[in-house]
Write the structure tokens for this entry.
Amino acid sequence: MPAALAPSDDELDEATVRRLARHCMAYREADNRTAAMQLVTTLLPFLVCAGLMLWGVTAGNYWLLALGLPAGGLLVRLFGIQHDCGHNSFFTSRRANQATGRGLSLLTLTPYGYWSRSHTLHHASAGDLGRRGIGDVDTLTVAEYTAMSSLERWRYRFYRHPLVLHVVGPPLYFVLFQRSPFGQALPASEAWRSIMGLNLALLAVYGSLALLVGPFAVLAAILPAALVASWTGGWLFFVQHQFEHTHWDESEEWNLQQAALGGSSYYVLPKVLQWFTGNIGLHHIHHLNSRIPNYRLQACLDAEPLLGSISRLSLGESLRCIGLALWDADSRRLVAFPRA
């Protein structure tokens, strides 16, 4: 359904939202066999690609570094599995979810405990203007921006510049910023154990590899996939909530289910990209019920036609979101700097 025909916030009345929430409840049960198959068919190809790249560098066959592209896509899919483990939705067993999520941290470079905690807070506050700043892209309102000094405006414009937000920022965040417990959204006391624990594990695993084949070979094998995955993941996280007709409310008027459907996009991707991204484009359903494992999101969508028309965003339409930067409370949409 074209975006112009999608239901508005007014059409998504309370009764409709409750009905959709009840519909999603039927898809929240995990399936261990499906989960195990998804993990194996993602992890093994990734390890093969990584191994070939590592061998290619040591043998002088640098053309094998081109495998960084599919390896990066597989790494995005592994991050999606780690994400589901953080919601305890991938396996039926909490212990299996925790073990898998922590193990995948060695590949995604993302501290599982800290990320899960901050992501849970993101789900509990997405679309609430009074609780911004945890697990989301920093977003100001038009009123807040116009009240700023020139220097403060410049800083915000620099942060929201496409080169910073989509090119330089994601690799820096995933590879470097996640290594420090300081400067995170949550207090360092909450982040210290998770982040520093992962840092020690990374040092042990990749340090051992570096001793065997050399640090250059290890970096050359890791960085291509890490760059592709961070750029892809950063973009996905952006378009999941930063689209023109998204949904924000003041805390007094905020409703979790309304914000989930109206403030999270249904990113319609080609099937191959949907596979690599682990169905995370069906983000409105995920926010409506975060216990639905990624491998059941499509079935949930197919069984309820209305879900296919809410917050729909095509690949082409998503490119027009790049310049959006401010929430306009009067028109209830994100706008670009010149319009504001």
Remarks:
- The longest helix spans residues 32-59.
